[in-house]
# Entry
Amino acid sequence: MTYQQSSNASHTTPSRASGAEPGPTLCAYEEFLHSKKFLLENSGKVIPREFIHEKLFDFQKDIVLWAVKKGRCAVFIDTGLGKTFIQLEWARLIGEKTLIVAPLSVARQTIREAKKIDIDVKYVRSQDDTVDELNITNYEMLDNFEQESFGAIVLDESSILKSIGGKIKQKLIENFSKIPYKLCCTATPAPNDFVELGNHAAFLGICTQQEMLAMFFINANKEHTFVYDNIIVTKKGSNANGTEWRLKHHAEGAFFEWLAKWSIMMTKPSDLEYDDDGFILPELTITPLFVSHDYQPNGELFFSKLHGIEDRVYVRRESAKHKIDTVKEIINNAGGQCIVWCGLDEEADLVSDNIQDCANVKGSDKPENKVKAFGDFQDGAYKTLVTKPKIGAYGMNFQNANTMIFFGLNDSWETYYQAIRREWRFGQTRPVNVYLVLSEYERAILDNIQRKENQAIRLRKNMIAKLKNIEIAELHNKEYNIETYETDTREGANWKAMRGDSCERLKEIEDNSIDLSVYSPPFADLFVYSNSDRDLGNCRNWDEFFDHYSFIIKETLRVTKQGRLSCVHTSDIPAMANRDGYIGLRDFPGEVLRAHQRAGWIFVGRAFIQKNPQAQAIRVKSKSLLFVQLNKDSSHSRPALIDQILIFKKPGENKVPVVPVQNGEMDNEKWIQWAHGIWTDIKETDTLQFYCGRDKDDEKHICPLQLGTIERCIKLYSNPNETVLTPFMGIGSEAFMAVKLGRKAIGIELKESYYKIAVQNLQSIQLQGLF
# Structure
């Protein structure tokens, strides 16, 4: 068997035999690959830099230029870096009737900030109050506005989108979907908070959260531990808050490239190679102060540990009166203004009853009273502000104070971080002192906060580092592409292995030259092998997978001889609630069948392969196969998934009969056994050794087809010395068996590590004297 190798193989155009079925063009495929990328096309406006107000720093001006050009994007920069100026300039330069939505107290603050850069913003409570330029309201007023009247919307403190089940989040995504220009502004989100990122992408119209998860993330059931840049991360949770999803290791690069196309992340200007002058934070001192007191838990003789929210609230209530003297001492010794963060009304009342010259801002206060109290504190009207973090810890500028007291803690690191950043922010000129006044019994809460903080800081640092070069390219309008695509070709006795994209490398094979194809395609995102857009496993949804797969189905039809067959290994696919909207099964074999028929193949048969349900339960971690589910509620149980071999024929007359009986590879007894259509004697472990073909970043083990299954397909549907094709070669199982059984083989594989081991397996055949 002789092959001619081309140095530019992926662009070789095959000759056309008479009557050959035309395959899709490379141009059409390249257009499809471009459409498959998760990229947000610029929909904004290009403006001269001199149009931006002179008071903005260089990095702020560059972000404004980028955001206006994007039209729909997010600015994730840390507190004090000028999000307010950036969003105001974006809204002014977009030039549309704009609605800015912000937390209540932040809205009034934004109006004051706007005057510093000569912009007028009107506070509005309903549609009737709006003007044709810039309007601002608070999130609670969203129902009072009509999206059709606005050309642009800004979400200030857009972390409100974090709540996956929040009513406000749903209103924003659904009720403002048609607004052409959108901007989200918030502090840098937690790098492992994928729900927040997904909801931002959904609001901006980039993709749905389900599409983002399918493309870049993997569902890690219940508790799992993984390594992220040499950091051991353990997460536990449910799909209600998204903590079961984590970034696919091999998808990191693609994910950060995608993220940088619609968001800018920065904790300080030097993150993106700007000067930090003027943005160096002052010293921060955090001092835990533990108060001793007697405490007997409900129903226990001795304290062992805190058992959930009820215990935490009970301890706070019991310890409050013992903490107040410490709080008073700190306030009396503070050289300037002070904030006291409380978690309970009882704590806030206790402070205000014992401290003079203070304001206690409560959730039950009228909105205008909250705004006035915060404004008066900023203006120095009183020394101490007493409030809850959920009321005043988001978006407010309290650099006028440099002393802060936490009257107890909860387990939310984000709340803790945001509260500290009200004083400790760029623009603060004095050292900031934070005091954590805690009961001895609240040490576990502090330990939990510190653990989360250390993890968040390290993860955020790594995330910023990964985004840096891509974001710099974005800000300066330069191209940046992390994906590389390489091809290779190896040949041996009766085999040819081709590394690359089957959609392209199949073009090198002549029309009507293949006698049989045997392969197993990726199962529509159940098994994902690489981060390349060329990988069928990397598709955002079902339709995109079959659009991609159709290129290979058509090319395989073109290269197959008339009247000859293609054997395709498939199985049903579990449907997941967070991806598909229900729990059940998806008929993948049925869709594969219909895709082949649309391409011109004729469906001629199907064989079922029995599988071991216990082995499958362990391998795919399906609770529907477990004994515990059978004993709990068998309505959620189902039989094991059965592999299927779908058999397709290319239209036309077969010119060379396939006669396995004459070839000595079949007899009547064996045919009776195989013709049942249910193969019960295939050994699941009868596969090529594959562990050396697995990358360290692989999320799921490769699934080589059983050699016994391949053997039956080859013996039934090809003659010795004929050519067998596998467009998804993997580690080479089908090609290996073809050569071993006296056929010739052509295999194509995209993933480098699998390609290398496939070549080794094929090279080993002659060494072992197998043919």
Observations:
- The chain has three domains: 9-36+486-568+646-767, 72-216, 284-449.
- The chain has 24 helices and 28 strands.
